[in-house]
Design a protein that fits this description.
single chain; alpha/beta; Rossmann fold; Helicase, Ruva Protein, domain 3; two-stranded antiparallel sheet; 35% helix; cytoplasm; RNA binding; RNA-binding; S-adenosyl-L-methionine
Length: 279
């Protein structure tokens, strides 16, 4: 249980000033300082009291505080060594709950560090956010992935690509990778003015909950199929898929009109074609 009530934490703006933590553009940093908003983000996964959690890019520790207040046992990875003294100060307020790793999240084995069942909660650095998401979505499903939920802050455009539906401009490979074995939704929108410094675009928190993968489908077949289909998204499937062996026959078997374009094909239809390709 946190003893934050006994160890008074200074306001985040004071922490930033004390440690000289100007947000680094090179690291894609934008700090969130509104503690009520941060508590709302930490509440998106539901009850996490006593459960493992994993955070990328905590910066001065705003979201870190909120996750710890919710009772999680947190592993946080920070690449910016300037932030480490500020994060270390949280140990006094939350003894035994926090472990800080100094390093690059792209190179760290999150499963080994955080443990199975971890809730991944992060205001992701803009420059690596999508790559980290794809890595977590590409984890083995046995029948579920090692992580329990993903609660992630993205630029609005990326968030819309994750949750996009067929027939929309944002629908593409990222939507299919996110949705073929997960439920994805935008949990809240966050105005640019909430950040220090304010980014040029709006942001949103996306929440993903995994579910068992459809039977008989392998990620590699779905990836090849969607890469071909969306590589030329404005062309008909009969043109974009002609270079993928067996794809046009699979369309015929499933009953998908080859004159359709990739952006009109549902996640379930792509999954059905990938299942045929994998036989």
């Amino acid at each position: 249980m946190s003893v934050e009530g006994k160890v008074k934490l200074p306001p985040l703006r004071e922490v930033i000033a004390t440690h000289g933590l100007q947000a680094s553009k090179a690291l894609g940093q934008n700090f969130l300082l509104d503690e009520q908003l941060l508590d709302r983000i930490a509440a998106v996964p539901g009850t996490i009291d006593g459960q493992p959690a994993f955070e990328v890019g905590p910066g001065p520790g705003g979201l870190t505080r909120a996750i710890l207040r919710a009772g999680a046992k947190l592993v946080a990875v920070e690449r910016d060594r300037r932030c480490l003294p500020a994060l270390a100060e949280l140990d006094a307020a939350f003894p035994g709950q926090l472990r800080i790793l100094s390093g690059d999240a792209m190179e760290i084995d999150a499963r080994a560090e955080a443990g199975d069942g971890a809730h991944i909660i992060a205001n992701l650095p803009y420059n690596v956010g999508t790559a980290l998401l794809i890595g977590w979505l590409s984890a083995p499903w046995e029948p579920l992935p090692w992580w329990s939920t993903l609660t992630l802050m993205f630029q609005m455009e990326v968030a819309e690509r994750i949750v996009a539906q067929p027939g929309t401009d944002h629908y593409g490979r990222l939507a299919i990778l996110s949705q073929w074995r997960s439920d994805a939704r935008i949990a809240m929108k966050v105005h640019r003015s909430a950040f220090t410094p304010p980014p040029k675009v709006m942001s949103a928190v996306v929440h993903l909950t995994p579910r068992p993968a459809p039977d008989g489908v392998q990620l590699k077949h779905l990836e090849r199929l969607t890469a071909a289909a969306f590589g030329q998204r404005r062309k008909m499937l009969r043109q974009s898929l002609k270079g993928l062996p067996g794809a046009l026959d699979a369309l015929a078997e499933i009953g998908i009109d080859p004159q359709r374009r990739a952006e009109t094909v549902s996640v379930e239809e792509f999954v059905a074609v990938a299942r045929v390709l994998g036989r």
